[in-house]
Amino acid sequence: MVETDFLIIGSGIAGLTLALRLSDLGHVTVVTKKGRSETATALAQGGIAAVLSHHDAFFLHEYDTLKAGDGLCHESMVNLCVRSGPDRIRELEALGVEFTRRPDGTYDLGKEGSHSRRRVVHAGDFTGSVIQQILVRQVVERKNITILENHIAVDVLTQGKIRSIQGGDPGINGKVEPQRCVGAYVLDVSAGVVETFVAPVTILATGGAGKVYLYTSNPDVATGDGIAIAYRAGARIANMEFVQFHPTCLYHPMAKNFLISEALRGEGAILLDPDHRPFMHEYAPEEKELATRDLVARAIDSVLKKSGKECVYLDISHRDPAFIKRRFPNIYEACKRYGFDITKEPIPVVPAAHYMCGGVVTDSYGQTDIIGLFAVGETACTGLHGANRLASNSLLEGLVMAARAACHIQDNLEELKSAPVPRVPDWNPGGAVDLDEAVLVSHNWDVIRRLMWDYVGIVRSNKRLALAKKRLSPILEEINRHYWDYTVTRDFLELRNLAQVAELVVRAASARQESRGGHFNMDYPEKDDWNWRRDTILSRDDPSAST
Ligand code: SIN
After folding, report:
1. φ and ψ at residue 221, rounded to 5 degrees
2. What is the DSSP annotation of 504-545?
């Protein structure tokens, strides 16, 4: 059994920022399922939205966030995140992050879809990678932080779960009643051993779940682990139908959905149909290429369906080549490797799953329904993003919520540490044997991701959602059986989480009988504020979706 003060699961911007802040209060253990920098943060190109120019104002950033969120943002969270943005940016700079500046020393602020002002600070188009490197360097230097790579959480340990493992009081009506989280079971992938971590505070910072879809801009680690773990522990999960599809990922068999940042459209890039004609004026006459992402992604989807072709094109070749290479060095080089010169020609692009607007329900300090269990970053649903996230608000949320969670934990440390440490049973593999046929995992992995793309993608319908539910059900049962019969591996745990998240997305999407933000259902094409201006809440103990 490993005892630590703070157990952080995940090593992106939210997890590592929180680790740094908590390291003054006690010992922090960060577990991360692959390498410490294999995170969505490291891939972020655009930057961080914050009010940093006198041409901008908090109320404008708030307005843009609320507009993108399409009626479901929690206004207090929007105010809070927007107004703390500038301070969080300065803290990152104090750690060593250098944002791109103009010759006069002011920030070179980028523009992205649905922002009424230039307000995205960036480090070229490597923003996330620069931030990740600096945070990792800082974390490694702190004596009070241990970072364990190739460690994947199996499940968090709640008092209720411990009681049920010990065969004790199963709780009210036979249901396990989780009130407090006391740590987690974590698989050390290299050793193949499940270790027990005991901590008064556990934080889920595992990022998003883009791998639930066949095409995604996300890294391979984005399998929704934190959301699935919190759901199984009994915490509420919200708004899983609001999956954000990024309109422009490079279309190339080897590119693995390399993102072409929205910042290109912010600098004038135009979308072209398969015959190389502009089309966004037909779908969003005013904002065109800079309309909200849900609208642009649906427009592309419609052009692709009408034409029967596989991709549309993005063209920035009318801009000065020197500017393009200076502003987008990463994208320029990557496209060149795949045979496209963005300074000379349009490049083929397709939409791909990009961001999960829903997640584990938290309060404005990252506290979930379970005492001692926090969720931060993309894993959480704080209410900031509503039905559709405003571009570049996600790194902002990660920073703001890490800072708020740290303050809250500090203020309540005595109470959080006061709970007696229970006798936590070691992981019991029972009669589980090694799964000698990897195909049992890889087949279901492929089926789920294809099913979600085809049936629960950018445009949905009742029929497709019902089919998705029907097809997922036996897969979930099979995975559950395997969980008990076979020793756990990282691939299997990821599949188990992926399947759970897919089920949550389907359930939430089926419940919402309207179209709003990132959720569009052909059978309910209109927005229905009267009945549906509310979050979709899912909970293990209440199988129906409610508010
Ligand atoms: C992008 O650079 O287009 C992605 C930014 C974001 O998702 O916020």
Report:
1. -75, -10
2. HHHHHHHH--S-BTTB-BTTB-S--HHHH-S--EEETTEEEE
Q: Report long-range pairs for 296-299 (Cβ below 8 Å, ≥24 apart).
A: 296/113, 296/247, 296/271, 297/245, 297/246, 297/247, 297/351, 297/458, 298/458, 298/459, 298/520, 299/271
DSSP per-residue string spanning 51-107:
--STT--HHHHHHHHHHHHTT-S-HHHHHHHHHHHHHHHHHHHHHT----B-TTSSB
Cβ neighbours of 2 (radius 10 Å): 15
pLDDT at 172: 45
- pLDDT for 390: 96
Low-confidence ranges of the chain (pLDDT < 70): 168-178, 543-547
Ligand 1 center–CA 90 separation, angstroms = 21
Given the residues 36, 293, 404, 449, select the one marked as catalytic: 293
Residues with CB under 6 A from ligand 1: 45-46, 261-263, 354-355, 391-392, 394
Contact 304, 344 (CB under 8 A): no
Q: What is the pTM of this model?
A: 0.95
Distance 10 CA to ligand 1 centre (A): 20
CA distances in angstroms from 470 to 59, 233, 375, 476, 513, listed in the order given: 45, 25, 31, 11, 19
Percent of all residues in the chain with a pLDDT value above 70, rounded to a whole number: 97
Residues facing residue 151 across a β-bridge: 188
112 CA to centre of ligand 1 in angstroms: 8
Backbone angles phi, psi at 481, to 5 degrees: -65, -45
Rounded-to-integer distance, Cα 198 and Cα 5, Å: 8
- 383 Ramachandran zone, left/alpha/beta (phi>0; psi -120 to 50): left
Measure the CA–CA gap between 441 and 495, rounded to whole angstroms: 7
In whole angstroms, what separates CA 485 from the centre of its chain?
31
Strand bridging mode 347-356 / 151-158: unpaired
Counting from 1 in the atom list of ligand 1, the atom nearest the Cα of 354 is 7
Spatial CA neighbour of 111 closest among 296, 266, 325: 266
Q: Is 293 a catalytic residue?
A: yes
